Automatic annotation (TrEMBL):
Pfam families: Elongin_A (PF06881). It comes from Lachancea fermentati (Zygosaccharomyces fermentati). Residues 26-70 form the F-box domain. GO terms for cellular component: elongin complex. This is Elongin-A. The lineage of its organism: Eukaryota, Fungi, Dikarya, Ascomycota, Saccharomycotina. GO terms for biological process: transcription elongation by RNA polymerase II.
Amino acid sequence: MQDEGRKVEKLSVLCEISLMRNHLALQNVANVPYRLIRNVLMKLKVEHLCKLEETNSTLIFEDEEVWLELLKKDFPLHVQETFVRKKDDICRFYLSFVESHNPALLEDEELIKNLLKYAVRKDPNTYKYRIPSRMLYFKYQDEVLRKQELSTKRLRLRMQEIQQEKQRNQIVPLEDPVYCEKKTKPVRSSLADRSDLFVKSYKEHQRRQLHFKSGGFDITRRPVKRVAFGGQVGTALHTSLPSAPVSPPPAFTSPNSKLTTSPTVPQKRPSSPSKVKRVQPPSIFLKRRKPQLPMVPKNKSPASTEPKNKKTVVVKMNSANTNKKKSSIFKTPSPQEQILKDSEHPSKAYIFDSTHR
């Protein structure tokens, strides 16, 4: 009872299921109609499909949907309907395939006409002939291969250029060294076409180059001219000179006290034989100014200028130190001596010795 209720599949369906399970082992489909193996062909790849079409040339006129699926899968950006005005190229495509794989089929002209009429149809909207998907697939495949070949060729040429550049830049040992001078660019003779700012900066640069031609100013190489003390300041003496005693400065006392002076001996300093000793003028602090005397009118005589009660001028000096040699400081006459020289009556001047008190 159970066997009577089970539905038995047709033999063609069972064969199709077996073929689909073992589609990779399919090698020959000669004299098999397209409607029986349609589902099997939908599972095949391009290489396998082309081999089966070679065994049965009539499949290319009917397997348009199979190639359309392959076109969508491999070239998704180029899936569009393409039309041409003339059908000669399409007919030539089919006939060349049949001629190369099954030339005996061309003897039946009526069969070839029916197959071409079924495959090549005019579109009612555009009135053009649609290019089959199989033809477009191989066209796109050829374009991809051509692009790959071009890219490979460009890559090969680029690698050759890089290799040649490496060979040119390679360091090669030379037997004799070659010294090349650096070539400088010639300076433009005319600056008329330049801006004022450029001309100014260029001239300033030339002046700076002339100024710092010897490397710039170096203070350590500056020549030093020594003048003080015969040019021996700052130089090391090889011989030790005896130290001369330093005399104290002269002491000035009041007029009522004793006037004591000590003679000073000028020290002789060693002079360098290579340098000339500079003669300096005497210091202004060693000179004494002369006292200013009252102006005498020209119409009066000198006697009238003398006061009636003229007092005697007393100069006190130490007799013990009068014979001593005075220092050069006292070569200038003192104010008292100057009064004695200018006085007209020297008899009225008396000198007393302070020792007789």
